[in-house]
Design brief:
Number of helices: 10
Strand content: 5-15%
Low-confidence stretches: 42-47, 121-137
Structural class: alpha/beta
Mean pLDDT: 79
Number of strands: 7
Order of helices and strands: EHEHHHHHHEHEEEEHH
């Protein structure tokens, strides 16, 4: 169980992170209100009210989205450009480009998003040209992921501009979903895009096991991010792909599960655990990690061959080895380009 009677749900046991966007911060605030509907200072009469707050960390936005500007590494930028230049991608983007132009302009005209903001988050891989070789048409156009996310949010709240139909919004979401899966399912792209966030998640899990738990140690880590974050994480962790783009307010849950063995041998203790070393754990306890999307279990294929089924739970040590291997990707330019040419 995540919270027991001895370690009850308390704000001190929660760490919250969000990308620096009003909508993600508000989503996180709404979740916390749901966890503490009566106010967090009412959970323990002996607590100092000044200590009863949950600080939201906004400092790591660029690591919680798969397509920041600039990209995390040169390797990610190179691979993304190569994947976007595949013939089937070019043809479909070209066919959809008039819709991208129309919706971006409508969002700016309606002041849903400012021109400067559009330029800031624009991916730079121009989708707006009526002709692929016409430089004059390389105008500021929002990336498909942002178009899908913004229009979906507006539609849910009945604020979608009247000049954008529901059918057009469905087309945007479908195309954004297709592009993300076409890009992120490449064997290396998800790893390059989400390396920092994946490392942070596994580090949090390791700290729960390796350190003696104190009353204010976090047992729940909450990340509030974006649809594209969920997709990229699912691809990077080699999880079952969803049948459709995640619904508004979807959540990916990552659980640490400890299974006690019947025998009780002497524990093995790692002498100098670090974020880059593979930790060793007590041999009488087996630790597993389980993933689920909106309550449905996602199987993980890390370490499995083509002839082996994905697992409902993956051993933590296997997951650590996989994450540790990601640290070498930044220097694998030749390998990445070779993999791209074989795609």
């Amino acid at each position: 169980k995540l919270f027991t009677k001895e370690k009850a749900l308390h704000p001190k046991r929660i760490k919250a992170r969000s990308t620096d966007f009003p909508r993600t911060v508000q989503s996180l605030q709404a979740l916390l209100v749901g966890l503490f509907p009566d106010g967090i200072s009412l959970n323990n009469d002996n607590d100092d009210n000044d200590d009863c707050f949950i600080e939201v960390d906004l400092r790591h936005s660029k690591f919680h989205i798969p397509d920041p500007q600039p990209r995390h590494t040169k390797q990610q930028e190179l691979l993304e450009r190569q994947l976007a230049l595949r013939e089937h991608m070019i043809q479909k983007d070209y066919a959809m480009s008039p819709l991208a132009i129309k919706v971006t302009n409508e969002l700016m005209v309606q002041n849903v998003i400012q021109v400067d903001e559009a330029k800031r988050i624009s991916s730079g891989f121009h989708v707006g040209g009526l002709s692929p070789n016409d430089n004059e048409n390389k105008m500021t156009v929002l990336p498909w992921a942002q178009l899908a996310e913004v229009t979906k949010c507006l539609r849910v709240h009945n604020l979608l501009p009247s000049n954008i139909t529901h059918e057009e919004q469905d087309w945007i979401v479908q195309h954004a979903s297709w592009r993300w899966f076409e890009t992120m399912r490449h064997p290396k792209m998800g790893k390059l895009a989400m390396h920092h966030m994946m490392t942070d998640i596994i580090s949090n899990i390791k700290n729960m096991i390796q350190t003696e738990q104190k009353d204010d140690d976090a047992l729940l880590h909450i990340y509030s991010a974006h649809d594209s974050t969920l997709i990229a994480l699912m691809c990077a962790f080699q999880l079952d792909p969803p049948t459709h783009w995640p619904e508004y307010a979807s959540y990916l849950k990552i659980e640490l599960i400890a299974i006690m063995e019947e025998e009780q041998p002497e524990p093995k203790i790692s002498e100098n655990p670090s974020s880059t070393a593979i930790a060793t754990f007590p041999t009488n306890v087996q630790y597993y990690v389980r993933f689920s999307l909106n309550g449905s279990i996602l199987r993980c294929a890390i370490g499995r061959t083509e002839n082996e089924d994905a697992l409902d739970m993956i051993p933590l040590e296997k997951l650590q080895e996989y994450i540790l291997d990601l640290s070498h990707l930044d220097n694998d330019t030749e390998e990445i380009m070779e993999a791209t040419s074989n795609t």
